[in-house]
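TL;DR need structure tokens for one chain.
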Amino acid sequence: MYRFGPFQLDVRSHELRRDQARLKIPEQCFTVLLRLVERPGALVTRDELRKAVWPDETFVDFDTGLNKLIKRLRQVLEDSADSPSYIETVPKLGYRFIAPLLPPIETPPAIPIPAAASSSEKDLSRPASQSRWFAIGLI
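>> reply
TL;DR here they are.
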């Protein structure tokens, strides 16, 4: 999980969230953003992004397609090409992710509940016959 500003980019679920609200972005936009966030501050070339988004056998107007993806990302991130907070354009070369990354949010570990805590709960990990013999053995 990557965090920057009010955003969270979850690699496992392929989701972009802003303040816990899921934002809809196309998969290609997600791929571009992930490539940029994986290398904060470093130049990611247009060719690297092309290879990440479009397979070699795909024939598209790459320049127009990439420009549209970056424009869409900036709209979702409420970023500006003239005064960027997240994605900086390096003319004719590529893009750079310029926002500081925040440490991931730590979730507290789950506290295990002992099996004997509730006598009304049936132990579902044992077959019924084992549970019966176990109860008889306790008596």
